[in-house]
Automatic annotation (TrEMBL), chain A:
It is found in: Nucleus. It comes from Brassica campestris (Field mustard). This is Response regulatory domain-containing protein. GO terms for biological process: cytokinin-activated signaling pathway; phosphorelay signal transduction system. SUPFAM superfamilies: CheY-like.
Automatic annotation (TrEMBL), chain B:
It comes from Brassica campestris (Field mustard). One of its GO terms (cellular component) is cytosol. GO terms for biological process: cytokinin-activated signaling pathway; phosphorelay signal transduction system. Functions as a two-component phosphorelay mediators between cytokinin sensor histidine kinases and response regulators (B-type ARRs). Plays an important role in propagating cytokinin signal transduction. Gene3D superfamilies: HPT domain. This is Histidine-containing phosphotransfer protein. It is found in: Cytoplasm, Cytosol; Nucleus. The modification Phosphohistidine is found at H82.
Length: 238, 156
């Protein structure tokens, strides 16, 4: 895909049947330093993610489908679309073991409280009213970073074992909490600078140091036998 | 500074301000402008072009839906209005969006006469906006050709 490997690049899939809105969301996401893929329907979204080709199975390797999927940090979709609505798409994603952990954001031009709560209950991270603004997208960085870190930590856990999806899923909450706790511990130290930007720097460094046999060593130019660093270790280097 | 450039810039500023004051544009248009940069220097023009293409298509659909001898499918008309309302909202086309809100209600009320009248208004309105924005882009071109920079207009 030609991505600059060491940069903190988020890949977002944007789904909207309106060409005008696709153009807009694409620009907004690019402006937020994200790599964007746009599609015009829920069906195309599932196709892009590889869901419709029946790549799903209970095989542990299902957690590592095509390379494109691994890099998806967020899916942002319009609610009102012909055929498959954004809500339908959300449901399908949350029902899928491979994709349920990718954060999903719903956009809508209509402010219908029942609709909003239904989407959030189904697992959407955020619900944005259109027209979406740059300020709205800034709220998404934490969600995307969480997934990126989680994916990398999951890789390391899966590598030694041949456990079923269920076992891995049980481990998930533990990782999530410890990562979040460590990140929260970080913030007070860096209070004179803008917290979000610092968080991003910390995550970037953490990502650069996390590596395993699955990641191409060329991508990072780092040795793969470096031990997993502790966040406190990074703090002093910042 | 070149007096000609300064004059063009003032003309441009006043023109933009008038578009906002007369309700043609709202702050979403301001947002669009803020998304344009050296990396995407034609973003606003590109989005607007897509919007006006949308207008042609949707107005055409609605005209056909309303032209049925026999029962008119108001939900079909309404679906097109919904789309037009969405894209006009996304580009800051305030008057077009306002008309769409009325239009939606007329569809729900299955008010045939009202719908036909509203569609005519929508048609006039988007074409008027298109002409106004074309004038705006022409002014921008003139400023650049005269060696100046297109000013950022603060509408507050």
């Amino acid at each position: 895909m030609g991505m600059a490997a060491a940069e903190c690049q988020f890949h977002v899939l944007a789904v909207d049947d309106s060409l005008v809105d696709r153009k807009l969301i694409e620009r907004l996401l690019q402006k937020s330093s994200c790599q964007v893929t746009t599609v015009d329907s829920g069906y195309k979204a599932l196709e892009f993610l590889g869901l419709r080709q029946g790549t799903e199975s209970n095989d542990p390797t299902a957690l590592s489908p095509s390379p494109q999927v691994r890099k998806m940090n967020l899916i942002i979709t319009d609610y009102c679309m012909p055929g498959m609505t954004g809500y339908d798409l959300l449901k399908k994603l949350k029902e899928s073991p491979a994709f349920k952990n990718i954060p999903v954001v719903i956009m809508s031009s209509e402010n219908v409280p029942a609709r909003i709560s239904r989407c959030l209950e189904e697992g959407a991270e955020e619900f944005f009213l259109k027209p979406v603004r740059l300020a709205d997208l800034n709220k998404l960085k934490p969600h995307m970073m969480k997934t990126k870190l989680k994916n990398q930590k999951l890789e390391e856990i899966i590598t030694p074992s041949n456990d079923e999806n269920g076992t891995v899923a049980a481990v998930e909450p533990e990782i999530k909490d410890s990562v979040e706790m460590e990140i929260i511990k970080m913030l007070p130290i860096q209070s004179e600078t803008e917290p979000k930007r610092v968080l991003l720097q910390v995550v970037q460094q953490e990502e650069q140091m996390l590596s395993n046999n699955k990641r191409k060593s060329m991508e990072e130019g780092l040795s793969t036998d470096r031990p997993r660093p502790r966040l406190e270790g990074i703090a002093t280097a910042v | 500074m070149d007096a000609h450039v300064a004059q063009l810039q003032m003309q441009y500023r006043n023109y933009i301000l008038s578009l906002y004051q007369q309700g043609f544009l709202d702050d979403q248009f301001t947002e669009l402008k803020s998304l344009q940069d050296d990396g995407s220097p034609d973003f606003v023009a590109e989005v607007l072009s897509l919007f006006f293409d949308d207008c042609v298509k949707l107005v055409g659909n609605m005209a056909r839906a309303l032209d049925q001898t026999g029962t008119v499918d108001f939900s079909q008309v309404g679906a097109n209005v919904h789309q037009l309302k969405g894209s006009s909202s996304s580009v800051g086309a305030k008057r077009v969006k306002g008309l769409c809100i009325n239009f939606k209600e007329l569809c729900e009320a299955k008010n045939y006469e009202g719908c036909v009248r509203c569609l005519q208004q929508v048609d006039i309105e988007y074409k008027t906006l298109k002409a106004k924005l074309q004038d705006m882009f022409n002014l921008e071109k003139q400023i650049v050709q005269a060696g100046g920079i297109v000013p950022q207009v603060d509408i507050n």
